[in-house]
Design a protein that fits this description.
single chain; about 190 residues; mainly alpha; 6 helices; about 80% helix; about 0% strand
Length: about 190
């Protein structure tokens, strides 16, 4: 297994640790949530690294094309579910945004599978990459809010910070919708029999 694939596999293996530390309320002073946020940020950053290494060194493989998006989707879904589970991102808006983001990933994955049966590779476009970079930022902001909810540190900035979190997640959701529609329209030929 080459280095980029090892990085992708490590990202997948690290996701349960993000879940454990985020949900480990028995760890005092939000230290578990802090560890989870740091792990989440590192894993999200390595999503940029593995692809660049693979392309620059000519190490792009079919396994890598499979592992990289899976790792990304698992991390984003996990992050969204965690901030929903502890009530940091509240219903109904949090649930609606999560369903939209996760549904888009399922639809695009299905489209890629259909394309693969026709020996067509559907590469991510610029909108998809922007979306993929924006989602973890929005989730990380909410994870920081979750830390504040356990060990308050924002003071009078709490309301403004909460609004910023929802604005970021709203932008991430809008980018998700736009990139999903764009992806479907650009690749509509794949649906033709």
């Amino acid at each position: 297994m080459n280095l980029p694939n090892k990085i992708s596999m490590t990202r997948i293996i690290a996701i349960p640790f993000v879940m454990f530390f985020y949900l480990a309320d028995f760890i005092p002073n939000a230290i578990g949530k802090i560890i989870a946020l740091v792990l989440f940020a590192v894993i999200a950053f390595t999503d940029l690294v593995d692809g660049k290494i693979a392309r620059s060194r000519g190490l792009v493989t079919d396994l890598g094309k499979f592992l990289d998006p899976i790792a990304d989707k698992l991390l984003m879904t996990t992050g969204l579910l965690l901030i929903l589970a502890d009530g940091t991102m509240i219903a109904p808006w949090g649930v609606i945004m999560t369903i939209i983001i996760v549904a888009r990933e399922f639809i695009v994955s299905a489209l890629r599978q259909i394309a693969a049966t026709k020996n067509v590779v559907l590469a991510a476009d610029m909108l998809g990459k922007i979306k993929a970079n924006f989602q973890p930022v929005a989730i990380a902001f909410f994870m920081l809010l979750a830390i504040h909810n356990v060990t308050p540190f924002l003071g009078s900035f709490e309301f403004a910070y909460t609004v910023i979190c929802y604005v970021l997640m709203g932008i991430a959701t809008i980018l998700t919708i736009i990139s999903g529609v764009n992806y479907l329209v650009k690749n509509r030929a794949v649906f033709k029999v």
